[in-house]
Amino acid sequence: MLNHTYQVTDKVDFSANSTKSIDIPETGYINEINLLLELYVTPATSVSANEDALARIIDALKITAAGGKNYFTVDDGRQLLYHCFHQYQGQLLHDPLPSAGGSATTVRALFPLHFGLDPFDSFDPSIIIPGAELSNLKLEVTWGSASDLGSGYTITASSSQMRAIVKELTLEKGETRDKIWPDGINVPLFESRSLSLSATASNLGKTDDVPVGSMLHSALIIVLNSSGNRSDTDVTEFGTKYPKLALEEFRIDNFYAIKGINRKQFLLPGTVVGQPSSWLSDPKGVFLFKFSEVTGKAIGLDLSTAMTGDVKLGFTVASTGGQILILYRSIALG
Amino acid sequence: MLERLTTTIKNLKIANIPVGDALLLLIGLGVNEAIVPTVARLIRLGNLPSVVGAGLGIIAKMPAVERFLGSTLANVLSATAIAEGIDEQFNVKARAEAMLSRLLPGRVATAGVETSGVEEIARLGQAEVSEQERRIVSAMRARG
What we know:
Number of helices of chain B: 7
Radius of gyration of chain B: 20 Å
Largest interface: A-B, 42 and 35 residues
Shape of chain B: flat
Order of helices and strands of chain A: EEEEHEEHEEEEHEEEEEHEHEEE
Helix content of chain B: 55-70%
Radius of gyration of chain A: 20 Å
Distance between the termini of chain B: 36 Å
Number of strands of chain A: 19
Strand content of chain B: under 5%
Oligomer: heterodimer
CATH class of the largest domain in chain A: Mainly Beta
Structural class of chain A: mainly beta
Shape of chain A: globular
CATH topology of the largest domain in chain A: Adenovirus Type 2 Hexon, domain 4
Structural class of chain B: mainly alpha
């Protein structure tokens, strides 16, 4: 078994409001894909940057393969950003946009997408995408436009792209997969949902059925207000519900407490030099809920035999017009 | 030549427990765990490490080699070479462990991956050790 790191030669070229994809070489068992965003941005004499601008330029991102295999899906770049933020304790490369009247410059953000349970071990074999056994393995990006960055910015498409740096385990000559994974492999399954907050809801009344059929590891929640920015006040309570058992096993009636728990749980930063000012304290409107909170098992909640509706996430909604973005992370049998 | 030394090791007993036999077995396994996979990589026999193990087992029992090693060490090396070859080929140890871990209750000790079950949600059908956990544990073990 060899540790193999390489940058994919092809890059996903930026093209406003378009979907672009590249093939990922099918050479090994992929542990990690580091997605490097590079945008060549020219500022006007007056600019106003959006919150999480470099993430918002990504409208959607997918990692797919032939046979309907869908390993990773986000429908908003912020889901990708805050998934990585929690995995890596907020220590991400994330450049600021250029100042008003400044020079055109390349701004970069790195989204390290690790599939295993130990993000600090790049070649952790616990959960992998079996690239060597797949065909038509693709990274697909749906790009937004310059207005996603804010007002007064121009993006030069020919100098803007996303690159993929892959970390994978490759078999040595004569080695078989069974040697490294004698009991079989686990694969990642990230599923994105969006709930519109069209009405207020009390007592965790706004619910979402969690995905079943696999091991559910965690759910990343992002609450957006009616302006599309992250909010701490539109949703006030969060919990898990088991309707058949009339059970609420986890419930926190204060949104700030959830974020506080996250901060110590994931060692999130209080201050980070060079990072966006929104990261100087707990990021608004974002938290990651690990199902180990209810099972006591780091791997999560085993829903392999559950039915849709057996487990729900519940939210108490105080303000309307916004939405809740959820990124479910499951571990499936490969 | 080595017979006197290996016989001394073999006869070693502590509190009447035959420690010597265990030591010889470990020596044999250690030697063959180093040799068999390496030879299997160097000499391609249709990717059949079990053939390499059997070959080394036969070599250890060849009269000239056995005279050098002594019959005790030759027997140990021959048996462990064949065992190592079979294990390299069919992954017998890992499969036996996996089978037993399915039958045995309780938690699985892991290297680097925490799977400690504090309390099961039996009402939700939470398995004691899930298939996903079993796979992670065996991958970590195989990785070493």
